[in-house]
Amino acid sequence: MTPEFTKVAFYQPLAKASREARRLTVRDDDPTEPSTTFTQPDRWEGKEVQAFVVILRTRGCRWALGGGCTFCGYVNDSFVRKIEAKELITQFTKALASYKGEPILKIYTSGSFFDPYEVAEEAQSAIVALVPGSVRKLNVEAQAPDVTESRVAAVAKAKRVDLKLEVGVGLESANPAVARYSVNKEFFLADFEAAAKAAAAHGATLKAYTMVKPPYLTEAEAIEDAVATARLAGPHASTVSFNPMNIQKNTLVERLWTRGQYRPPWLWSVVEVLKRAKEATSTPVKSDPVAGGKHRGAHNCGTCDDHVLAAIQAFNVSQDVRVFSSLACACQETWRDVLDLEGFHQGPIGELADDA
Amino acid sequence: MIEVLARDGWARRARWTLGATDVETPVVLYVDTDRHPAPAHAKALLARRAPAGDRPWVQDLGSRFSPLAPAPGAAVSIAPELPYAPASGADLLAAGHAENEGALAKGQALVAIDPRAAMPTDASDLVVMGSARALVANPYALAAHVTTLRRSVGAGRLLYAPGCGLPHEMALLAYAGIDVFDSSAALLAARQGQYLTPEGPMDAAAVERAGARPCRCDACVSGATGFDWLTSHALAAVETERARVAAAIEAGRLRDLVETRIRATPEMAAHLRRFDLEHHDHFEERAPLIREGVLAATSKESLQRPEVERFRRRIESRYRKPESARVLLLLPCSARKPYSESRTHRRIAEWLERVPGRAAVHEVIVTSPLGVVPRELERVYPAAQYDLPVTGHWDEDERAMIRGALDALLERNKYDRVIVHLDETEMEIVAPVLTDFEHTVEGDPLSNESLGALVRALNDATADGPRVTWRDRMADDLAAVASWQFGEAGRSLAEGATARGKTPFVRLFDGETQLAMLTDRGLLSLTLDGGRRLLERGAYRVEIEDFVPKGSVFCVGVKGADREVRPGDEVVLHHAGDIRGVGRAALAGSEMTEVRRGVAVVGRHHVAAKEARK
Fold first, then answer.
1. pTM for the full predicted model
2. What tens digit of pLDDT does each residue of A302-334 get?
3. In the Cβ-directed half-sphere of A173, how many Cα atoms lie within 13 Å?
4. Nearest-CA residue of chain B relative to A336?
5. Which residues from B are below 8 Å from A14, CB to CB?
6. For an interface test with B, which of A172, A345, A352, A354 has the most B Cβ atoms less than 10 Å from its Cβ?
7. Do B138 and A259 touch (CB under 8 A)?
8. Could you tell me how far CA B297 lies from the centroid of its own chain?
9. What residue ranges define each of the domains in chain A, with the CATH number in brackets?
C-alpha cells in the first residue's frame, strides 16, 4: 500500500524549489517580544467562548528554514537565528499581560513547539508551567516526528494535571505522493499515527490539519485528497481541520499563483470536502478558510462568497451538513465544469477569465 | 504512426493512425464525459473512461497524485504525470520530467514539462505539452517554450497542446507546430458566457441583444439558448476553424491566417511578435524557399515574416553584387511584379538604352518590406510576389529597415558611384547612409526631365573605367544570384564560369560543361557538374544510403543533411562524399532525418549506376 519512497525523507528538487522561493532574512527585533497576541471565538464544552492566542517568535521552523512546505510562509515572521530559552519564556510572560481569563489558550510558534531546535526543552516545560489556572485547554502545534513519548511526557509533567493538551499537527495529506511531490512534507500518515499514540499515552490529543488544494493538484483531485485524508487520519485525531490554501508571501505557491499557474480552491470545494468528510469520519471536521472570499484565499465568484463562508462557520459549530443545502449560485456550474475538465489540461488552469 | 501530408513551416497536415482509425491533423480531441458528451462531428475523443460508440479515443490517466487504470480500447493513454508548472523553476521541471519519463509505460503519451528534455523512444508518437493553457495565456513564456519543445519532440511525433483549441488561437498554435488540440477550453469559455468566433470571444449577451446570430451552425440556427446554445456553437466553431487551419496549411497560406487571427487578443499578437523577433532562425529553418501566390504584406507583422526577414538577411550576410557593376542605381519599386514588367520600370529601361555603358550599372530597387532588391533577384520569392498597401507614406520602421538594408549592402559591396533615382521622400530616406550620391529626380521620376538627368548622370558615371560586356555581366549576375541562394559556396559555383542564353533562361557554363540554369523562379537549378562544385565546398548536401537515386529520395534513405537546406532548395545528393545526384529538397535539411516517411528530395539528375563507387 505505502510506496517505498516513504522511506526517503523528501523529494530534493521540490525542497530546493520551495527554498528558492523564500527570502529568508535574519530579523533584529527584540527577542523577548512575542510576535502578537489576539483572541478568537472557539468552542468549549458546547459553548462559544473566546480563545487567547499567543504567537511566539522563534528562530523559525527547522523544516521551513531548509525549504519546507511549498505553501507555508510562517517562517517570514521568524528570527532566522538562535533564540535562547529564557528569551522565549520572557516572550510568553509578556504575552500573558494581555490575558483576560479565556478558557482556551493557543500557543503558536511558526513551526513545531516540540522541536528542541526551535523551542528548547527547558522552554517547552517552563512555558507550559506558566499557563494560568483559568485556562482549561492548551493548544500547541508541532510536526509529527517531534511528538515523541518522552517530549510529550516532559510537557505533560510540567502542566497542570487538569489542563487538557491538544497538539495540532499539519498532516496536510495522507497521500504519500502528495506529501512528497506537492507539499514537500517531511513526514507521512504513519508518523501522524505514531504521534497520536505518543500523545494519547499522556492524555493529549491530536488535531489533524489537512490542506485543501496543495499545488499541482486539480480542484477535483484536491477534494478527493482532503476527504481521503479525513477518512484515514480521523480515527487518530480529535478534530480534522481543513485548511483551504491561502497564498502566503515568499512561497513556491505564491510564485505559481502570481504567474497564473495556481488558483486557490473554490469555496464550493471546501463545502464539498466538509460534506463528504463528515460522512467519511466520525471525528468532528471543520474549516476556517484564511483569506476566505479574497483572491489569496479560497473564493468563489465574489457574489456568493459571504453566504458560503457563513454556512461553513455555521457548520463548524453545528456539524450539521444541512446548513449547506440552501446555498446556490450560478458559479456552481462553472465550478462543476472545472471539476470535470481541469484534469484534461495536464497542468494548471489558473483563474478563469471572469472569475476574479 | 504518422505520415505528413502537407507542410507549411512547422505546421503540418498529417495522417495519424489512432487505434484502428486514421485521423488527419490538425485534429481536435473532443472531451467526452457524462457532463459534456462529445459532439456528433468529433472524429477523435478525449475521455477518462471508455466512451460509447467506436470513435477512436485518447484516455487521460490523471496525474501521479491520483492515477487512473488504463482502459482497454483507448488508442493512446496520456501517462499520469507530475504536472509541474513552468513557474516551478527549471530545475524542478527537469527533475519532474525525468520522473515522468521514468514512470512512463511503453506506448503511453508523455506529458513533457521540460521543453529541453529528450523524448523517450518507446513512448507514443503523441507528446503532450504540459501546462500548455498557462503558457498560451502568458505573453512572455510561450514562444521560448514551444519553439524549444517542438524541436525536442522532433518532426516524427505529434505535439498536443491540452486545454488549447479556442478558434482564435488554433492558427497561431498550428504555426508553432501544434498538431493536436482539445475542446476543454471551448467548453469552459462557453460556460463563461463567451460566444466563440475565430476573431476572438464575444460577449454572448451582446450577440443576443443584436437579435441575429452571426453563425449558421445548427445551434445558432435552431434558436437554442443559454449554455446549450453556447456549448454547441463553441464546438462547431472549433471544428470550423480546425478545417480552416487545415486548408490554410494545404494552401501554404497559414501565415496569412495567423496574421488575421492574432488580432483577437494582445497575448496572441505578442506570441507572434516573439516568434518573429526572438525566434526567427527557428521559423526560418522550416520556411519554404519558394511559395505560390501573392504575399500580401498588409500588417505590421507581415514585415517580419520569416521569408521576408530571410530575404533581407541574405542580402546583408550572403549577397555579393555582380562584380563588374560599378555604378549603383537606386530605383523606386512598383506595384507590378516582377518590377521590370511594370510601366515604371519599362519606361526607365527605355531611357537606359541611351546609356552605352549600362552593363556597368547595378539597378537596385528600394522597397518595403524587403529593403533593397537587386535587379537580378527580382524574380526570387518573395520579391516577385509581394503586395502591400501603397500610400506613399513610409513609417519609421520602414524607413529604418530600408536604411539598414542599404547600409549593409554598401558595407559589403563597393561601388564607384551612387545615383539615386527616387522621389524626394524616398531620397530623404536613403540619404543618411550615403556619403556621396547624385539625385536625378526633379518632381516626377518618370518625367522626361528626370529621366534625361538620369541618362546624363549614368553616361557620366560609366564613361571612365573598363568596358563591361553583357556576356561578362550576365555571368556576374548569375554569380550574384548564386551568392544569395547558396552563400559562399554559391560564389565558387560561379567562379570562372560563363553565361549563355537570353534572360530569363540563362545557363551557367564552365567551358563546355553546364553547371546550372536560371529558372523562371529566379533561382539556379543545378546540373550534376554544378552539384559537384557544391559538394566540394561542403554545402547544400544531403547524404543518402549507398544507392543511386532514380527519382525521389525518401526520408528513410537519408543519412544526414546540411542544416542550411530549406524546403525548395537545390541540393546535391551524395554517399560518403561520392556524388549520386542533384535535386530539390522537399523538406528542411534538419527535418529529413526526423521523419521516417515521405519524400525528402525530388531528384532531377543522377549519376550513371557505374559511376557510383562501391
1. 0.94
2. 999 999 999 999 999 999 999 999 999 999 999
3. 29
4. B35
5. 92
6. A345
7. yes
8. 14
9. 8-344 (3.20.20.70)
Q: Do A354 and B83 touch (CB under 8 A)?
A: no
Q: Which grid cell sits at A307?
A: 453566504
Q: What is the pLDDT of residues B417-432, one digit of tens each?
A: 999 999 999 999 999 9
B63 to A216: CB separation less than 8 angstroms, yes or no: yes
| Residue listed under C-alpha cell 471544428 | B239
Looking at residue A110, what is its pLDDT?
A: 87
Which residue of chain B comes nearest to A223, CA vs CA? B66
Put simply, the answer to whether B65 touches A217 (Cβ < 8 Å) is: yes
Looking up cell 484502428, which residue turns up? B20
What is the phi/psi pair of residue B505, to 5°? -100, 70
C-alpha grid cell for residue A233? 487520519
The yes-or-no verdict on residue B614 having pLDDT over 50 is no
Q: Name which of A17, A177, A217 is nearest B88 (Cβ-Cβ).
A: A17
In the numeric block, which cell numbers belong to residue B457?
A: 548622370
Exposed, middle or buried, B307 (CB in 10 Å: 0-12/13-18/19+)?
Answer: buried
Length of chain A: 356
Test A340 with B36 for CB contact under 8 angstroms: yes
Cα A90 vs. chain centroid, distance in angstroms?
26
User: Cis link prior to A103 (omega < 30° from 0)?
Assistant: no
How far is it, in rounded angstroms, from Cα A278 to Cα A319? Answer: 8
- CB-nearest to A347 from B134, B188, B194 is B134
Closest CA in chain A for residue B113: A347
Query: What HEC string does B107-145 produce?
Result: CCEEEECCCCCCCCCCCCCEEEECCHHHHHCCCCCHHHH
Query: Angle at CA A247, nearest 5°, toward A243 and A248?
Result: 100
Q: What residues does B127 pair with on adjacent strands?
A: B110, B159
